[in-house]
Amino acid sequence: MRELIILALFLPLLTGTVTMLAAKPQAIKIINLTGSFLTSLTLVAIIHQLTLHEVFSAGILYVDTLSAVLLLVVAVLSFTAVLFSTSYMERDLADGHISEPMLARYYGLLNLFIFTMICVLVVGNLGLMWVAIEATTLASALLVAFYFNRSALEAAWKYVMVCTVGICLALLGTIILYYTQLNVDGGTQALDWLSLRQISSSLDPSMVKLAFVFIFIGYGTKAGLAPMHTWLPDAHSQAPSPVSGLLSGALLSCAIYAIVRNMIVVQGAVGSQFVHTLLIVFGMASILIAVPFILVQHDVKRLLAYSSVEHIGLITLGFGLGSPLAVYGALLHIVNHAVGKSALFYLAGIITQEYQTKNIVRIRGLMKVSPLLGTMFMIAVLAITGSPPFAIFVSKFTLIWAAFLGGSPLLGGGTLLLLSGIFAGMMYYCLRMCFGSAPKKLNFQPVGTAAMAAMAASIAMVIAGGMVLPAWLHTILTQAATIVVGG
Amino acid sequence: MNLLTVLLLFTAMVLSRVSNLRTAVKILLFQSIMVTAACLQAGWNTGEAHMYIAAVLTVLIKAGLIPFALFRVVKILRRERESNPILGPNISFVASAILIVLSYWLIDRQLPGVVSRDALAASVSLVLIGLLLIMTRRQAVMQIIGLITMENGLYLLGLSVTMGLPLVIELGIFLDVLVAVVVLVILTYRLKLSFMTTDTSVLKKLKG
């Protein structure tokens, strides 16, 4: 197990280094496909081991089934993102948007980004988790700024500033948490998650509350919770599309993971009431704030970014409801949203490359230009808005069901109302883009096989996930929910 | 109240007044040296080797590499200065004084009778004044300086309440701060190239 984890950390670094040394685009493509495939394979092996042993802990490394859920997300998304990148970047290169040296830099940074996300998930120390989360910001910042045009620079500047300040607050919270731990056990196991969880009931409640507020605001900024979400639409819309998919699906989920890890300790100290209220309020606010921006939107990638704010809100709401069913739903929703939203970002990437614009008004007649792309886009939008029979319907349904069961029909009903508004907005823009007559001067180029494969695989997963839930995934999710609820 | 905390608060208050970027970086350098001194003092008092390692790292990174990078970028930005801050120098000077009072009030309320009261209040003030700088300054470099001030404050806070985080975490934090500054300096440089200015008020295109 330890070897597997070290391998999973080592492979992206190795791939990145070799990429920087290789010069030819073709070689870079092969190196990255292989490297990413092996990384994902290693991650899947770790997940497999976790279904057998549940927990592994050694020194600073710690993984359990809760990390397994997120590792699954990173395993799937990092591979589809690299697969999609090969076609997407080839097209960018052919169109002259980027040069060959930039290609190597792109893959180098992408691998570094994936490495930092894996780091977040395999460390068992809340201090190191903070270090890893901050590292994800820094690795992805240069990816957001990748094209180095004016809007990309603006997005990257806001991203680094807002997230770093946010994350500094999380560090403040972590220091306070460490202080409370010092008062109890003298800090022999400084910020170690397992020992913190063990002694959580003897931590000073008022200090822990203070710590959690800072930690929640800090990581919440990174997760894109309203009202700290301001960086999110900018960064998601300006980054290259494969990166947008990773940011939205994997990075936001990693930040949520950090909140949940801290939450487990905190609810042991101060009870779940305080923590859950905080999560529910911010979760609902995020869903609420996304609605107007989705109803009136001009940029297709910003539309998807606001939908991410909504989904993160929904996931936070699920953790806030706190019943095993709600947490199960939230965890399932993390997985489903990651796959669905990354597929949408990939599709949006292809569409913007074909139409040379992100402006929704100027994207028309997708069905006529390419029936296959149009159909996939329709399916993906239907799926992400939670229509049956797709996977996201199942998890959204579970969440709202849990809200009604948990005795908060107002929350459940309110969420349903907001979700229907979001459905209306997303479908309106989707239909506008899919139908109508295509602009005349559009010269459509066939989509690369790798990109097609990445998108088709993601959409196949979203469809299949609505029909069957594999037994192993169910086991992992149930165990992870027990970890979260049981404290 | 010892000399170190006075000097630290002094640097923070002066930072809220300056508009010349080069001067601001010099003050930041001085601030980082004070942080190192605080670290050495903590090492002297506790006799822990890990404090000395942390002090060496602080000197290397915060008083060495970071000011070096900032001086280089400031040199390229010759004519840039904080000409149009959201709060003028006088108001932000008063604001930072209020923030210092606020931090003392906070500490007395949350941790009455704590031993390192002054150090704690000073570090909270540094965090708040750093935040003030980020929010009210428009020059990219001034925002970076605000961020480092905030980080210095957090570092001192860790030093005064917990005698520093474990070394491996602290190493990670140092690395992150260094990389953050490198990334921000790259972006500042690019801002200058693309917008001909590093006044971040030009960044207002992405909305809605």
What's the short version?
The complex is a heterodimer of chains A (487) and B (208). With 487 residues, chain A is mainly alpha-helical.
Please provide a written account of the structure.
The complex is a heterodimer of chains A (487) and B (208). Chain A is built from 19 helices and two strands. By secondary structure, chain A is mainly α. In chain A, strands 1-2 form a two-stranded antiparallel ribbon. In chain A, strand 1 and strand 2 form a beta hairpin. With 208 residues, chain B is mainly alpha-helical. Helix content of chain B is 77%, strand content 0%. Chain B has seven helices and no strands. The model of chain B has no long low-confidence stretch (mean pLDDT 87). The A-B interface holds A 60, 125, 127-128, 130-132, 134-135, 137-138, 141-142, 145, 148-151, 153-158, 160-161, 164-165, 168, 171-172, 175-176, 178-179, 182, 187, 190-191, 207, 210, 233-234, 237-238, 293, 296-299, 302 and B 110, 127, 131, 134, 140, 143, 147, 150-151, 154, 157-158, 161-162, 165-166, 168-169, 172-173, 175-176, 179-180, 183-184, 186-187, 190-191, 194-195, 200, 203-206, 208.
What descriptors fit this protein?
heterodimer; A: 487 residues; mainly alpha; 19 helices; 1% strand; B: 208 residues
What is the β-strand count of chain A? 2
Largest sheet of chain A: 2 strands, antiparallel
The helix tally of chain A amounts to: 19
Succession of helices and strands of chain B: HHHHHHH
Unreliable stretches of chain B, pLDDT < 50, 5 or more residues? none
The end-to-end span of chain B amounts to 49 Å
Series of H and E elements of chain A: HHEEHHHHHHHHHHHHHHHHH
Q: Give the radius of gyration of chain B.
A: 17 Å
Coarse shape of chain A: globular
Helical amount among residues of chain A, as a percent range? Answer: over 70%
Number of strands of chain B: 0
- What is the molecular shape of chain B? globular
Described by its quaternary structure, the protein is heterodimer
Measured by DSSP, the beta-strand proportion of chain A falls in under 5%
The chain pair with the largest interface is: A-B, 51 and 38 residues
Terminal Cα separation of chain A, in Å? 25 Å
